[in-house]
Amino acid sequence: MPEAHPSSEDSPASSDREIQSIRSQLREALPRLREKYAIDRLYLHGSRVREEASPESDLDVLVDFQDTMAGREVSLLDFIALKQELEELLSMEVDLGERKALRGPAGEKIQEEAESI
Q1: pLDDT by residue (tens digit) across 44-56?
Q2: Would you call 60 a catalytic residue per the annotation?
């Protein structure tokens, strides 16, 4: 019986290429997303950033919205639309959260791990 070899898609190099591709796609889309959703910054965190993701893992994204002083409030519908647009752009499930909502030790850990796009 042939020996099982890990798939090249599961290798650390493959994981690194994948997260680099995700970062690149987000950087390219960010000017348009900023305009459409009043985004200040996007951050990645979680298993994909740590290169511990399985093929089924979602992408953990945090968002800072621009100050609402500009006269634009971000509605729940805008938030959902942003999540859906990110999922379509990246062809994967996205877990989207607002960075300002992070609290406690878990929030601190996520903040430490988060990488700005």
Answers
A1: 999 999 999 998 9
A2: yes
